[in-house]
Amino acid sequence: MSPDSQVIFTGILFILTYVMIIAEKIHRSVVALAGGIIVILAGVISQEKAVESIDFNTIGLLIGMMVIVGITRQTGVFEYMAVKAARISRGEPVAIMISLSVITALASALLDNVTTVLLMVPVTFAIAEKLELNVTPLLISEIVASNIGGTATLIGDPPNIMIGSATGLGFMDFVVNLSPVIVVVLMATLIWLKVLYRKELVTRPELKSSIMAMDPVEQLRNRTLLKKCLFVIGITILGFILHQSLHMESATVALAGAALLLVITREDPEHALHAVEWPVIFFFAGLFIIVGALEEVGIIEAVAREALEVTGGALLPTGILILWLSAIASAFVDNIPFVATMIPLIQDMGRLGGINDLTPLWWSLSLGACLGGNGTLIGASANVVVAGMAEKRGIIISFVQFTRVAFPMMIMSIVISTAYLYLFFLR
After folding, report:
1. How many CA atoms lie within 13 A of 356 on its CB side?
2. In which residue ranges of the chain is pLDDT below 50?
3. pTM value?
4. 3-23 vs 335-353: helix crossing angle, rounded to 10
């Protein structure tokens, strides 16, 4: 195959892969793996280079955290926090929505947003049933909060994991630079949700009493295991904070935490590894190979040159372009494949445009991709997971229903992010 033919072939394959991921007719992991294998079979990229293009730091970090959270899930601590929040809210539906959203955001920052919603949704259904509430507003608020909270840290959202791995930015870099704007975005979003749903979320006094009668301590199923899990989670988070000083990759910290937890809990490794979402892992692997092929044939460099023509290589317009492009694109396309494509593109833009410090552009990409995921029901993995769990329980969250509520809030969050980036990074 000639070089020109390889460019055309790889470009078409990449577009087809995106289209099939969006269509969801075939599982996205299968689509990504098939695309990765095809570019190898076609000779676009060798097997050796394909393996090199897989970011094993991202893969290792995901596996380590999935194991830790999978074991911790058995303790019931997340159910405890949800019931505790409902009691503190004294059964007031709007206060419960805000409390559950805050817990979801915090948990998403320290764990990851997909795992967090998997743990929160069953408890949310139980609380809504006791109060005879429409559960949809609670679920939508948790989806939005999970994506906002996950933006604040290295480990909260897969796009941040990918950015951190590719750039060397550490856990504290994300916390220090992104947490301030995320706090503002979360507060603004909660106010919006309160105004939007204040008339819909009402219940009777006797039903509030049923919530107050719930005992959060009853949710804790294994206190001995809980102590061990909290100890390891604390050590792991400390490791993330110090990993740059210790010259360790974030994946090493996560895998070390998972190994330590397996040792001190004597958990069956086979059972623990069931907590790993292997389809997600193989989705990443296939995706990295396809993006590696795009780099190999020069498509990404060509797109970078075109982008520089638009922005002139200046930091401010480049940063704003990346932020808004990431947000709008991530609303309609899963943010993981989008970020996988953007990372080498930004690196090439920096090299070709002579931008010495790319850090502000990474914050633009992170905020755009993670917050943009709130735009539609297919914008982020957490959105799809919650919609699927709700459907199994007879509740349909439609694409239009979610988008009508969430897209304006997403635009608000990007406007806030634009002001933040301009004031502190892009001037």
Report:
1. 0
2. none
3. 0.81
4. 140
